[in-house]
Structure prediction request, 226 residues.
Amino acid sequence: LAKTTQPISMDSYEGQEVNITCSHNNIATNDYITWYQQFPSQGPRFIIQGYKTKVTNEVASLFIPADRKSSTLSLPRVSLSDTAVYYCLVGDMDSSYKLIFGSGTRLLVRP
Amino acid sequence: GAGVSQSPSNKVTEKGKDVELRCDPISGHTALYWYRQSLGQGLEFLIYFQGNSAPDKSGLPSDRFSAERTGGSVSTLTIQRTQQEDSAVYLCASSLAYLSTDTQYFGPGTRLTVL
Prediction:
């Protein structure tokens, strides 16, 4: 069964850049990597998606190395409102295309 | 509708009772997913539907859990003989198709409390 691994928690300060890395050793050839953000008492919300190299949108950047066994979500100049749990999502090649969320990283942004 | 809706938003029940949780996906979305999230924990994948079919039910925690989807739209997650460990937020999501490239849109969840 494919597995993703993320740090349980991270602390940062307003204005800093935050990088959260997800390991996904069994990612399938055709799978994309997607990151979601979840605030308390809400469902997760899509942030960014990529297949390889680098993807950037108005919210974040996603860096994926050539072997695709990991990915790094980069949040530039975080603010207090970025305090949330961040999930990494990839396809599960061992289990008939089941999608598995990572354990999530709880990011706390301090003033 | 504009987004995924779930009902009820909160459900308090007594141990041993049956409960039904409802999910209305975004119109036109063929894939629908159920997740469970216990307090302070990550998302636990339960089951997904492609149209009305659920190809893989192995994620359901026990045979007390069942789910169905009718008309390629509304889905119901049923928990029979509820136990206290069933207390959690049950989240539903839908996507255009069942592909890792398709964004999953989540509903607000149903908070289930089993006394």
